[in-house]
Design a protein that fits this description.
126 residues; 4-stranded mixed beta sheet; 3-stranded mixed beta sheet; globular
């Protein structure tokens, strides 16, 4: 029954206007708005629903990952756009001064937050 459904994911924010400015302006994503909610149109053809929630609590995990071919270039570009990167103290990853974590079994990754406090990332490898 759901095999052919065009499923999508979603997450909440506490301020749709700030979210739209961040996702469209800062990150440069195509964003449409309908019924007080946002649709993020991702490069791979998928969409993500962003909806307002008065008692929003930021996710404590990464809600959206952006694969990039060159993480250092992506971090530099996003930094120029005002994005601040997080630093997590993880035993198998070493985070450099710019916020890029390397090591462990996964790709190089850098985490950052949207205006609502949700965690996003850029990670190397497409």
């Amino acid at each position: 029954m759901l095999t052919d459904s065009k499923a999508f994911s979603g997450f909440s924010v506490n301020d749709i206007t700030k979210a739209k400015s961040f996702y469209a302006g800062t990150l440069g994503l195509k964003v449409t708005e309908a019924h007080g909610m946002l649709h993020l149109h991702l490069g791979g053809g998928g969409t993500v629903l962003v909806y307002p929630k008065a008692n929003h609590t930021p996710a404590t995990y990464t809600i959206l990952n952006f694969p990039v071919t060159n993480i250092d270039a992506a971090v530099d570009d996003l930094g120029k756009r005002g994005v601040r990167f997080e630093s997590y103290n993880l035993p198998d990853l070493k985070t450099d001064a710019r916020g890029v974590a390397r090591g462990g079994s996964g790709p190089a990754i850098a985490w950052f937050k949207d205006p609502a406090g949700n965690i996003l990332s850029v990670l190397e490898g497409e």
